[in-house]
Specification:
Layout: E1 4-8, H1 14-25, H2 41-52, E2 57-64, E3 69-77, E4 86-93, H3 102-117, E5 121-126, H4 131-140, E6 143-154, E7 157-167
Parallel strand pairs: 4-5
Antiparallel strand pairs: 1-2, 2-3, 3-4, 5-7, 6-7
């Protein structure tokens, strides 16, 4: 198993995170949508600066022993006034570093962040064809809460999504 560390993302990670998103979105399996294109490095840097100042969002990276950024966890509290206890998460891991415990470690970081900010429910969307991710989420304790037909648009194609949620233990 390769060594890795989970840490908060910093603006200096912007180029590596943009490269990771482009790499994952280019995979033929279609694990990640980039219909509008991925953010550029300058926009990502600005986004990471803003997130560092917000108590309602966070970005963490998984860094391999050689310093390469090989995973990303993004979290954002639901902005609706009736659901500040809910946060949405997004997770990606480089193909070369999957099935090494990085996804699980990032999910554990999500739970730690949630506890720290008073979030009691984590939600995510996953494509029905992404069986490896679904298995990871279910083993972690996420449950399927819904099926959203045609929820995402990729080019001219509508893509379904499974809504999954995790109740954060106190």
């Amino acid at each position: 198993m390769s060594e890795f560390a989970i840490r908060p993302a910093s603006p200096s990670d912007a180029a590596a995170l943009v490269a990771l998103a482009r790499e994952v979105s280019a995979e033929p399996e279609g694990w990640l949508l980039s219909a509008g294109g991925t953010r550029g490095v300058a926009d990502e840097r600005r986004y990471l600066r803003a997130v560092r100042r917000s108590p309602h969002a966070a970005v963490f990276v998984a860094e391999a022993g050689d310093g390469a950024v090989v995973g990303r966890l993004s979290l954002a509290r639901d902005p609706h006034p009736a659901s500040p206890h809910v946060a949405d998460l997004g997770l990606m891991v480089a193909k070369t570093h999957r099935r090494l415990g990085i996804g699980r470690a990032l999910l554990e970081q999500a739970v730690e962040w949630a506890r720290g900010v008073g979030v009691t429910k984590l939600e995510l969307h996953v494509f029905p064809h992404n069986e490896p991710a679904i298995r990871l989420y279910e083993r972690f304790g996420f449950e399927r809460e819904g099926f959203r037909r045609g929820h995402f648009r990729n080019g001219g194609q509508l893509i379904d999504a499974i809504l999954m949620a995790f109740e954060v233990p106190r």
